[in-house]
UniProtKB/TrEMBL annotation:
SUPFAM superfamilies reported for this sequence: Composite domain of metallo-dependent hydrolases (SSF51338), Metallo-dependent hydrolases (SSF51556)
Name listed for the protein in its UniProt record: Dihydroorotase
Gene name as annotated: pyrC
Known EC number: 3.5.2.3
Organism listed in the record: Halobellus rubicundus
Residues forming the catalytic site: D300
Keywords: Hydrolase, Metal-binding, Pyrimidine biosynthesis, Zinc
PANTHER family: ALLANTOINASE (PTHR43668)
Pathway: Pyrimidine metabolism; UMP biosynthesis via de novo pathway; (S)-dihydroorotate from bicarbonate: step 3/3
Cofactor(s) demanded: Zn(2+)
Length: 432
């Protein structure tokens, strides 16, 4: 199967013809005179490398009522994400070879490419787990979050040492529960769902708790020679500590585009770990994304049902969906000239491929997988939960503006055509 994109605008502004053949990018040139099974007149539209989302929770096995590999990966495809990385806090948690195998067979339903991470708990089985094609080890939880997989410091150091010996990156959920502000509980007015006061959650899981945990994680990395990646860094202090410690870090769309000022309206739909931060910290994160300190945007796509979120602040689950709106939200900022298209390309694809050693992905370059996203950069529209493909059916970005893809391709096969997503499994474990 071959495709010829004519007059496509690359992220750096160059207009090129791009030909794909048997799942790879065969040619990128000013003009290609060749026939193809499919010819797409890009007509100056933007052609980006498919986004690689290093942090999703697709919830199977164990929590298919929230999301499945089919619905989560369809949501990814409709948002221009062509590779996802699933986290280990499922049931069973992905902490043994057998648990990895159970998840791997479910992941075969994916319509985009995927990686499966291993996890760490007191009863993990590193021997069998590291015997599997792990994408990375993590998120390793330094504090409890969904799935209560928080571990102690000595187990963390042991896990990083084992991963370092196998050249496996360790991604870290960096919050130190000892620094949570328990007095916040007394300030909870007791609302339910959207009437809950999510700002109390931001007071409880304090910014200091993140910065301290990031410092500890990068110290352990330095001591053991482990490669540390800080997940969902939510504060400028956390980013600065990661950068100072030689670790890569990611930020999420909700920490870039939402803040405690949105907490009142969102209620428990704005409860996630780490929590929303104040406007100043949010702006500080955005500055670090634009100027290069932050390497990667990853969504921490963490869907929960509306029924589960319609609870009190301390009873509702933490997490928000995001895989379908990450690229659209960033492309809207690029449309407004607040970030360059090259930076959007780097933080959603090229840098992710580099950080996690995916040499055949992340770029519109000859020889790379034909993971491509075609976008009309001016075609902005309102984000509505009803239009999205996640099984959870809601989004914290309701009413915001995004620029969605006209076409998404994974290894040369169209998985989204601007209207409908495929239900044909095409995904492949990118760690064969
Ligand atoms: N971020 C969240 O608030 N929740 C995530 C877990 C996690 O990333 O901590 C989830 O899986 O629900
Ligand atoms: Zn986490
Ligand atoms: Zn997560």
């Amino acid at each position: 199967m071959s495709t010829l994109f004519r007059d496509a605008r690359l992220a750096d502004g160059r207009v090129r013809d791009v030909r794909t053949e048997s799942g790879r990018i065969a040619e990128v040139a000013a003009s290609i005179d060749a026939d193809a099974d499919r010819v797409v007149d890009a007509d100056g539209r933007l052609l980006l490398p498919g986004a690689i989302d290093a942090h999703v929770h697709f919830r199977e096995p164990g929590h298919g009522h929230k999301e499945t590999w089919t619905t989560g990966s369809q949501s990814a495809a409709a948002g221009g994400v062509t590779t996802v990385v699933d986290q280990p806090n499922t049931t069973p948690p992905t902490v043994s070879g057998a648990a990895f195998d159970e998840k791997a067979s479910l992941a075969e339903a994916s319509v985009v490419d995927y990686g499966i991470n291993g996890g760490v708990t007191p009863d993990w089985d590193p021997e069998s787990l590291f015997d599997r094609p792990l994408f990375a080890l993590g998120e390793v939880f330094l504090a409890d979050s969904t799935g209560d997989m928080g571990i102690e410091a000595d187990r963390f150091a042991d896990a990083v040492e084992r991963a370092a010996a196998r050249d496996v990156v360790v991604t870290v959920h960096a919050e130190d529960a000892d620094l949570f502000d328990d007095s916040a509980r007394d300030r909870d007015a007791g609302g339910v769902g959207r009437d809950a006061d999510a700002d109390v959650w931001s007071q409880f899981r304090s910014p200091e708790a993140e910065a301290a945990a990031v410092e500890r994680a990068v110290e352990v990395g330095a001591e053991t020679g482990g490669e540390i990646h800080i997940a969902h860094t939510s504060t400028p202090e956390g980013v600065d500590a990661a950068v100072a410690g030689g670790a890569t870090c990611e930020v999420t769309p909700h920490h870039l585009f939402l803040s405690r000022e949105d907490a009142t309206e969102l209620g428990t739909y704005g409860r996630m770990n780490p929590p929303l931060r104040g406007e100043e910290r949010r702006a500080g994160l955005w500055d670090r994304l634009v100027d290069g300190d932050v390497d990667i945007v990853a969504t921490d796509h963490a869907p929960h049902t509306v029924e589960e979120k319609e609870a009190g602040l301390w009873d509702a689950p933490s997490g928000v969906p995001g895989v379908e709106t990450m690229l659209p939200l960033l492309l809207e900022r690029a449309r407004r000239d607040e970030i360059s298209y090259e930076r959007v390309r780097d933080v959603t694809a090229a840098n992710v491929a580099d950080a996690f050693d995916l040499p055949n992905k992340g770029r519109v370059r000859e020889g790379c997988d034909a993971d491509l996203v075609l976008v009309d950069p001016e075609n902005a529209r309102e984000i509505r939960g009803d239009d999205l493909h996640s099984k959870c059916g809601w989004t914290p970005f309701e009413g915001r503006t995004g620029v969605f893809p006209d076409l998404t391709m994974v290894r040369g096969r169209v998985v989204f055509d601007g209207d409908s997503v495929t239900d044909e499994p095409i995904g492949e474990n990118v760690r064969r």
